[in-house]
Amino acid sequence: MSAPASNEIAAIAATIGRDIAGPAAADVDKNARFPIEAITALREANLMSALVPVDEGGSGASLVEVGEAVFGLSQHCASTAMIFAMHHIQVACLVRHERTAELQKLQDQLVAEQLLFGSATTEKGIGGDVRSSTCAVERDGDTFTLVKDAPVISYGEYADVIFATARRTPDSPPSDQSFVACLKSGLTLESTSTWDTLGFRGTCSPGFVLSATGPTSLIFEDSYSDISAQTMLPTAHTLWAHVWLGIATSATNKAREFVRGAARRAPGTTPPGAIRLADLMSHLQQFQETANGAARRFDELADDRTAVSAARFAIMMNGVKISASTLVIEIVSKALLIVGIAGYRDGGKFGLGLQLRDSYGGALMVNNDRIALNTAQMLLVTKG
């Protein structure tokens, strides 16, 4: 099966969300299990290589188009959408920064086999600072070894490749980081924790001690500081925002259906929840503009590495992350007030427990306080 056209991927993802991810979402959440059926369907639809250029076998999708696909999935299963989003953050890094024959070979393998990419950017002892590492890449001729004690590895047991950060050499300072593709064939994971969380339970991302070895050509030539600024930070904040937008939209749709039902039962009257619904819709519109605008802005500037590396661009993207992760909580909470006890009950047509629990994950994925501090530091030295 060939890659779908870029303008088709959102519709395909929405169908998978509705027909496959959605029906399994409650079980995925209840049992904190990996949404294997939805990820399998995404692979079979050749959506895992959506960001790879058309002339290299992918769909050549823009970030706007991938964001729409993430949004379509998230309305039905936020865990599936988050996995799809985090995978494409790594794909974006590979597509935009691969410089070696081994990394080009990995991209070809992604297209052919629809691999799943995970990441290990956090590390014990650094307090959530992904721009700092204590572990280091060690080179022996053309081979590297890496041992990283990570409190979270994105769906680590299920990923075919894990992209990890580490100090460039054992003598490098903590901020001098490399980005390394750790292939499953040279990878071992020693479990250090379990995954029993409040929300996003299907992402199955516990801690591991990661031990990896492979050819040094799997180490990106670009520094992680450049990869982070030019690709990882903006694509992460943008695609995460689309996950949260899907959660917020799902909750809003339930609230709207609830109010419309109340109106049908009492013709000629305006239900009490209608005023709250109007307010909720204005917040959702603000959210849509935030998420979609970030994707459009990245697509406009993607080829200008100077512009996407600039502090003012990072400040804007930090604002997207903080705004989106705050808005999702506000919107789901407002929807719960409209629906009332029907939303408070576990399950049922108007149940909002899953959306509420998932909504609180956003502010913790790179803590908002840390991002705000980073923004404050940049504002002190940035003109304009």
Care to describe what's here?
- The protein has 12 helices and 7 strands.
- The radius of gyration is 21 Å and the shape is globular.
- The chain has 3 domains: 6-115, Butyryl-Coa Dehydrogenase, subunit A, domain 1 (Orthogonal Bundle), CATH 1.10.540; 119-218, Butyryl-CoA Dehydrogenase, subunit A, domain 2 (Beta Barrel); 224-381, Butyryl-CoA Dehydrogenase, subunit A, domain 3, CATH 1.20.140.
- The model has no long low-confidence stretch (mean pLDDT 95).
- A hairpin with a 2-residue loop joins β2 (138-140) and β3 (143-150).
- A 4-stranded antiparallel β-sheet has the order 2-3-7-6, with no helix packed on it.
- The protein is 54% helix and 11% strand.
- The protein has helices at 9-30, 36-44, 63-74, 78-97, 101-113, 224-265, 273-301, 305-309, 311-339, 341-344, 353-359, 368-381, and strands at 117-120, 138-140, 143-150, 161-167, 177-183, 187-191, 208-215.
- The longest helix has 42 residues, at 224-265.
- By secondary structure, it is α+β, with helices and mostly antiparallel strands.
